[in-house]
Design brief:
The chain has 393 residues and is an alpha/beta fold. Helix 9 links the parallel strand 8 and strand 9. The longest helix has 25 residues. The protein contains 15 helices and 15 strands. The protein has a seven-stranded mixed sheet, with helices on both faces. A four-stranded antiparallel sheet has the order 11-12-15-14, with helices on one face. It has a two-stranded parallel ribbon with strand order 1-13.
């Protein structure tokens, strides 16, 4: 194997949220942490080499984004997702979550309504409510192990105060890759009702075989005109600590509003290493990413088989993207509080509680399988033993 994803890296005592805050988050340190959405694999060597080369200059003064920052993003999106964007459409954000907040402040006013589709990435909620906007839930429907958009409910929820919908594409935590028909229908509704779509596409590079990510804005000029897209190499290349993302829109007025908000809170500068890492990832990362997805697919297949054979009470929602697995634990018959306590104190696992993704997450847990196989095997063995002990009583 050219890339060794089986290598176990000790991340403790590196100011690592995932490992060093276990006691604070779970009340005990000896849980296997499978919650925060970063991976336990080394950042690719070609990115590390680019960072070292820049570090050798030994001056880390004020910086700006050169043309290569924009061409790297545009080239990646064209090659990987068949979406052709212009430099003039691209701007910066120090992360996707800051972009969500900046966009809400730039494109809506206090009292406006913003629609989300729960269960969904929980920072969507404070990005709306912390700025005195009204959060409206258009829950996804869950049937036969798959989630779908509920367009009838969406239409019922729309009124003149609805100014934005936040789309998670691919979807976190369910792993859905939205089909063309889903995106087309959503865009139709939003165009007709003059609703802006803020599309979080941070997981768009983590697609399993048999699925294809479609950037919403690539559907055509009319859709692109109402869409603001957020992308970043941070999930696919394990770069979250470098706080570098991109915001893309073909609508000049929207870009101007976003840029003004970005500058008004003085976070438009970014950092030298984030720019270097982004360019290296997007210029050189395709072979590594393909290898990563092969390994993650093997992890996924192992998990699905193991649960079916050993823990049938827990059913995974089979993801089409991401390394985050949405586990349906309803058949265990536990309350959410009991389920959380079971995972932490009986199974010794640090997972993400389903309820943080909205009420529709009740009875679920989210597991991060972006780790060496031995770690995943150990976690599943712990889970099996805990389930056997609990239900043998």
């Amino acid at each position: 194997m050219k890339y060794n994803f089986n290598e176990r890296i000790d991340r403790e005592n590196t100011s690592c949220i995932k490992y060093d805050l276990r006691d604070e988050v779970f009340g005990k340190k000896d849980v296997i942490p499978m919650w925060v959405a970063d991976m336990d694999f080394k950042t690719p060597s070609f990115i590390i080499e680019a960072l070292r080369k820049r570090l050798d200059h030994e001056i880390m003064g004020y910086t700006f984004r050169t043309d290569s920052f924009y061409t790297s993003i545009a080239g990646w999106l064209s090659r990987r997702h068949k979406w052709d964007v212009m430099k003039e459409w691209i701007t910066f954000s120090p992360g996707i979550v800051p972009a969500l907040n900046l966009a809400v402040m730039a494109f809506t006013r206090p009292g406006d309504k913003v629609i989300v589709q729960q269960p969904v990435y929980f920072p969507f909620f404070p990005a709306v409510e912390n700025h005195n906007r009204v959060l409206v839930n258009n829950p996804l429907s869950y049937e036969n192990g798959r989630y779908e958009m509920d367009f009838e409910d969406l239409l019922r929820k729309i009124d003149k105060r609805v100014k934005m919908i936040m789309l998670c594409s691919p979807h976190n935590p369910t792993g859905n890759v939205w089909k063309y028909r889903d995106l087309e229908k959503l865009a139709e509704i939003c165009i007709e009702n003059q609703i802006l779509i803020l599309s979080d596409e941070i997981h768009s590079d983590l697609i399993f075989r048999g699925s294809k990510h479609i950037p919403l804005a690539s559907l055509g000029p009319e859709v692109s005109d109402i869409t603001v897209t957020c992308v970043s190499p941070s999930k696919a290349f394990n770069l979250a600590g470098l706080s570098t993302s991109a915001v893309i829109t073909s609508n000049r007025e929207l870009k101007k509003k976003y840029d003004e908000m970005l500058e008004s809170v003085h976070v438009d500068g970014g950092n030298i290493f984030g720019f270097v890492a982004l360019e290296a990832a997007y210029d050189k990362g395709e072979e590594w990413l393909d290898a990563l997805m092969g390994y993650l697919e093997e992890n996924l297949n192992f998990l699905v088989s193991y649960l079916a054979e050993n823990i049938p009470l827990i059913k995974p929602v089979i993801p089409e993207a991401t390394y985050l697995i949405w586990l349906d634990c309803h058949e265990m018959g536990l309350s959410d509080k009991e389920l959380s306590r079971f995972m932490i104190h009986e199974a010794g696992l640090g997972l993400s509680d389903g309820l943080i993704f909205g009420p529709e997450g009740s009875g679920f847990q989210r597991m991060n399988i972006g780790c060496p196989r031995a770690v995943l095997e150990n976690a599943l063995h712990r889970l099996k033993n805990a389930v056997v002990q609990r239900f043998a009583q």
